[in-house]
């Protein structure tokens, strides 16, 4: 009877308003309560307040946990965020891929350098390997002040190169997630993440997070500076070349496309006085006193050059050689790039570094030759056409189109109110008479250099530059073989005699070669192309030049 009363009491409790409320909040609570009372003799209604308090505590912790952990992390952890679109991302990825701990990690991303890693696009390790192979191909190895000669056939050399090309360099970088390593005695956490909800056509969007214990982030700054130094020093004195590229979101940005050994200024065939004037003018502009002089007088600190002349006369070569000589980065921009509009061009110019060279090639073909007047005023600039000369508007773009570059848009970018300062602008054209005078006025074009066909002195200079190193290394029988033996005075004197004899021989051949080529008819590129067919045979080049000139004339007539 008592048990029935107890059971009845439990059922009555189960139908209480509190139980009904819990049943509404927790479906099945009535059954659970009955089970505990019947089999375990535990009335969970007595622990109701404790259960509710525990549930509230869990909810509060769940709600406050992210904020609390973030606040705690801010107090004891320093973190640096690195975004993929920034060049620091390239610094860090290059540095981390060359650390010893990457060889021990069990989670890594393996990729070929030419696929999608922007930090590895311009790695020159293959060129360095080929340079070392070229030395072995020359066949001279020095050991203990003695020279041993090894015979390497071209077939052996080429088989080695082809076998190497089969196996591309694989780069190993941390995969997505968290990685730990030690740097200068500090434990560093590297976390690599990728945005998952990004549309496919927008490409990858990664971020790196560097963290260390302690409120002082100095160790992270030191790490990033070391990564930057390692990334930059790998180039040495090479000339860095950037080009404008359209991103996945249709915006444009500068990307590094290659690095090249600097071109000697002596290899550019141009009047020596013009070359020297061009380089001296750039040096004077880059001098800090010149910059202060501009600022003190409120003059925009910009410099522009126009290189004009027939194709193949060395306009781009001069710009590239100047960039190497002054160790400036070279930025290439084609105004005919698909999707490039005035807003994108303004953004590109605004992101230029303070000291660099911007090259706009063949500006007359970009469709912005439309003049704002039928006549122009002649001046000292040889690129300005004569009076009453009608400027050709053939191929002009519709200035109302938002997807093209107009003349006014280009002028605003070059020297408008918001135009960037400190950069050097070089424009090249084959037809200067097609350019609007507004583009050529001082402040936009401060110096104009005319390139023409080869003169007699130019031909001699080009011939000498092609064959001045003919004596280096073993060559064919018709050329001298230059052997360098250290600490051997007799051999040194003999080599000096050979060098003198070689110089005299090349000088005589230069005269014969120049006499066989008519001046003012051929470009440097055409003559250089002919000489490349006789790289080690200057006599053969002289013997066949007359026939080649006749063939060139016939081809032009047809």
UniProtKB/TrEMBL annotation:
GO terms for cellular component: mitochondrial inner membrane. It is a single-pass membrane protein. Residues 120-137 have a biased composition (Acidic residues). SUPFAM superfamilies: P-loop containing nucleoside triphosphate hydrolases. Residues 52-268 form the BCS1 N-terminal domain. Keywords: ATP-binding, Hydrolase, Membrane, Mitochondrion, Mitochondrion inner membrane, Nucleotide-binding, Transmembrane, Transmembrane helix. GO terms for molecular function: ATP binding; ATP hydrolysis activity. It is found in: Mitochondrion inner membrane. Its main location: mitochondrion. Belongs to the AAA ATPase family. BCS1 subfamily. This is AAA+ ATPase domain-containing protein.
